[in-house]
Amino acid sequence: MKKFFTLIFATMLASSMSAQMHGALKFSGASEMAVMGQNTPCESDTVKFEMVSMSAGNITFPAMEGMATIPSFTIENVTFTKGENHVITMAEQTFSAKVTVNNEEKSITGSSLTGTYNMADNSLTLKVVFKYGKMPLPLTYSIKSYYIKEVSSPIAVSIGGMMNYENAGVTYQVRKYMDGETQKMDVTVPTYTLDNTVMGNMTLGTYTIKGLIYDEAKGGFYRDYKNDGLKFHVVCKGGSMNMDNDYSFNAEKDNNILVKYEGSKVSDIINRFQMGAMPFYISTNFKAVTNGIGAVKSQTAKGKGKMYNLQGQLVGDNYKGVVIINGKKFLKK
């Protein structure tokens, strides 16, 4: 039993270090706002959790839609205890917070906050009951959310199998969750830019593919999303054509994504798609590199390569932090 609680403590300590290094942890899932028996569901909300000690953390809730729009707010120093079965419990507690709306400060007075974080499936379940400003009636907000894992690495991009390009640093958001008895995955493809293509500097916008399911034959989580009704924004400048429009994926062509793992870490994200009436496909291959502080070189970056941040955005010489040059990470001070 002592070894078991030591393991729990070590796991929590690792999570704490991760939060301190990378900021608040993000969780996403379906939520519901209830007041006077009227329920307002939301398909996807995002909450943030940031540890401040081994027994307390700050939780940031999203803006909520109900009888009135309540802006995002943060509850500080939410206490929790570490229990068995990899579950952390936030016992019922009161809370308070303040928000500013149109230069007016409004109070949030909470009569109840309860929640659990299950480390086995990375789910965070929360329920809060509170009054907002001068509203006479209490509101109840509940959410079951799952951890959003961010993975960063260069991607190789092939257009039509003939023209090959690269972006030195792209960050995907990956979320595993349970849908009944089935484990599923959502993947948010970020905005990224390909420089000097035949169509000029091409920027492909973000979109989220939902409901990937593990495919044993393919060796990873897979989805054919050509009929999902997704759209994304494309901008091309300085080349053979100028584009600045939203595009749908061509339902007559291959549009699919495959996410592979090595142990608990994402190793590959392979995405093949064809947009609108474009005559050729685009294939992107994300291959994870060693991540973490050990993969960052604390030295002056040299060379003529372009410099990107971890979101794949081109940055200038005044940028401070971790940068990627020619596929390698450097700590720029």
From TrEMBL:
Question: Which keywords does the record carry?
Answer: Signal
- Family annotation (Gene3D superfamilies): 2.40.128.350
Which InterPro entries does this one have? Answer: Lipocalin-like (IPR024311)
Q: Which residues cross the membrane?
A: none
Q: Where is the Lipocalin-like domain?
A: 44-139
Segment forming the signal sequence? 1-21
Q: Spell out the protein name for this chain.
A: Lipocalin-like domain-containing protein
